């Protein structure tokens, strides 16, 4: 089975021309009666060998972490990070396997972060330097990893670790404040969301790896934006009444409209847990304590399935109402 990535690779290798690739895509689209970009295609697994490699690498890296920790967390982290990098030289740079590439990036950064933060926190338990240094070192490794391997998720990892540095510094300098922390998260989410839109705009047809980069940026931006909003709606005691339920419906409707316009589903998925929590609390207040979550899950699940069925017609109606200069910057609605 050939993927859109394989077609692009064939064009890069001069096996087929760009015109032939475009004609092939148009033919496939007409056969499926669906645009490729409308399905928000992201390459995760090209075959079961991807899963096999991830399982094998996970077992080996877990063993290295355990053995290294017999000496110290710094050695365990170093062994995991360097081994992940070495494996990426083959499975990412040479084989270009999607799922192992994602996994090895995460284990590399995880080894760097955990090895650093555990070691420094052990040496100076009261110091805030440990998390700051761990996030900063992870960000540096992620930047180098991007220039070496160009894995689409890496830019999101760079932003995530950089946000970790900023928030850790914020907490260290001003002490912990829930309001400031939520503002920091939301601001980081806005910046990440804008960057994701810029990457999306650079590939409106979503036929290159730029679309994959944008997907991961949206996936990072979504919880950063959604968490502060819905936690604020729930209040300090996390109690939820009819007012919170109404505001939650309004907020989720806005997120759904944005998701439809930009043709990204990450915002809606990130908000689901908060919506279920708020409405289960409301149902519990009227006596449906045990059944509340199940009822809300059934209603929301059915609603999302219907939205999936009518995604394209709804998108078409929304995009048609946008000003032309905005409509040209999102995927075409068919």
Provide structural commentary:
This protein is an all-alpha fold. The protein has a domain at about 1-35. Helices cover about 75% and strands about 0% of the residues. The longest helix has 26 residues, at about 100-125. It is globular, with a radius of gyration of 22 Å. Residues about 35 have low confidence and may be disordered.
Key descriptive features of the protein:
334 residues; mainly alpha; single chain; globular; transmembrane; DUF2157 domain-containing protein; membrane
Summed up, what is this model?
The chain has 334 residues and is mainly α.
**Gross geometry:** globular
The main sheet comes to: none
For this structure, the quaternary state is single chain
Quickly give the structural class: mainly alpha
Distance linking N and C termini: 25 Å
- The percentage helix is over 70%
Q: What Rg, in angstroms, do the CA atoms define? A: 22 Å
The secondary-structure element order is HHHHHHHHHHHHHH
In what range is the share of β-strand residues? Answer: under 5%
Q: Could you tell me the number of beta strands?
A: 0
Number of helices: 14
Please state the average pLDDT score. 85
Provide the low-confidence segments as ranges: 33-37
